[in-house]
Amino acid sequence: YIFTAPQPKVYESKATFYTCLSRVSWASVAMTTPMTNNATKIAFDNFISILNSRNVKEEVALKLFATHLMMDKHDPQLISQKNYQKFQKTVPENIKDLVVEGNLEATVENLKNHKKPEEGNFVYELLNYVHPYYSVKAISEVKAERVSNSDLVEVSYECDDPGICRLTLKILTHSFTDNYKSIKANRTDEVISYFERQLEKAAQKLNDAEQDLLEFNQGNNIINYYEQTKFIADQKEKLDVDFRKYKILGACNPPLAHQALQTEDKIGTM
User: What global pTM score does this model have?
Assistant: First the structure.
């Protein structure tokens, strides 16, 4: 106890995502196509990769820092008294001036605009060096793994400050959810755009075909293609019947067939 008592305590927070990835893929929701085991594994790998991406970590770090920056007084739910006092002493006044009262997103945006990859830039060094709470390296301590073969992904984080531990994971869940939704929405928009382009191409081909048919009808004096085609077919069938009839009649009695042809010609000219 004597040797371990001075050591900082370690707190852990956990969060669980229900992904629904093992049942259907986002791209095949409309077709209700079951995912294969390999596709499911890839989907979970992509999910966790996005969760561990630098963009998400940097956004979490900035929002965590901005939340503490906007505090007017100590709140144990967000940061310990000791770390809050240390925070107030170490943050420069020009950084505190970036706060937009009551607007976390605007404050974060100001911090992003202030961040530049140059020596002495407080925000840049905060993210890229070894700060125990606000650096990308600190946020990288978040662990994410799939729970057995379920649709759940468990995320956990350990920290020596209970308020920061809880707040970090809370911000992470919101930031990741927004990023993941944005990626999936963009993918859906790409699919919709693809089919819209294909629809436009098909419509153009149909218009071109209709225009060619119209020009063909006009060039050949066709008023009603389907009726005229039917009429021509009927006339051909009638001529075939007459031809066979006269051929049979001619074989049996040639003079009679010749007389019938003459009679037919007279009737036709009347």
Answer: 0.63
User: What average pLDDT is seen over the chain?
Assistant: 81
CA distances from 157 to 135, 167, 187 (A): 14, 10, 30
Residues facing residue 165 across a β-bridge: none
Q: What would the pLDDT profile of 209-247 be if each residue is shown by its tens digit?
A: 888 877 877 777 766 666 667 777 888 888 887 777 776
* Cβ(87)–Cβ(65) below 8 Å: no
Distance (Å, rounded) from C-alpha 79 to C-alpha 120?
Answer: 26
**Are 171 and 56 within 8 A, CB to CB?**
no
Helix (H, G, I), strand (E, B) or coil at 132: coil
With 80 as the cut, is the pLDDT of residue 136 above it? yes
The pairs formed by 82-87 with CB atoms below 8 angstroms and a separation of 24 or more are 83/133, 83/161, 83/164
User: Both tokens of residue 77?
Assistant: 């739910």
- 62-76 per-position pLDDT tens digit: 999 999 999 999 999
Task: Tell me how far apart the alpha carbons of residues 104 and 234 are, in angstroms, rounded to a whole number.
Answer: 81
**Residue corresponding to tokens 């049979």:** 248
- Rounded to the nearest angstrom, the gap between the alpha carbon of residue 261 and the centroid of all alpha carbons in its chain is 77
